[in-house]
Amino acid sequence: MTALLISIPISLLLVALAVAIFFWAVNSGQYEDLDSPAYMALMDEEQCPIEPGETRGNRSGQDRRPGGNRSG
After folding, report:
1. What is the spatial distance between Cα 21 and Cα 18, in angstroms, rounded to a whole number?
2. Torsion of CA 12, 17, 18, 24, to 10 degrees
């Protein structure tokens, strides 16, 4: 009987903690975009969207295609 008096409040605290963590994750935007990371892994680097603040001219300076840098 004393085991129930200890385990029930502990389990209720754990459930409350899990619910609080879930609502924190939802409010902080963890579940906003679930599809893009899966597609990003399948895309080539040239097809990936440019990161904020980056322009196409300053990516890496080298062409990723076989044959290296071709100017002209």
Report:
1. 5
2. 150
| Contacts with 25 (C-beta within 8 Å, 6 or more apart), sequence order | 31
Question: What are the C-alpha distances in Å from 28 to residues 1, 8, 19, 24?
Answer: 41, 30, 14, 6
- Per-residue pLDDT, averaged over 43-66, amounts to 57
The neighbour count for residue 40, using CB atoms within 10 Å, is: 11
Span 47-63, mean pLDDT?
Answer: 55
Return the pLDDT at 67: 53
Q: Output the CA–CA distances (angstroms, integers) from residue 47 to 4, 6, 30, 41, 50, in the order listed.
A: 58, 57, 25, 11, 9
Residue written as tokens 């899966």? 38
Per-residue tokens: 2: 């004393």
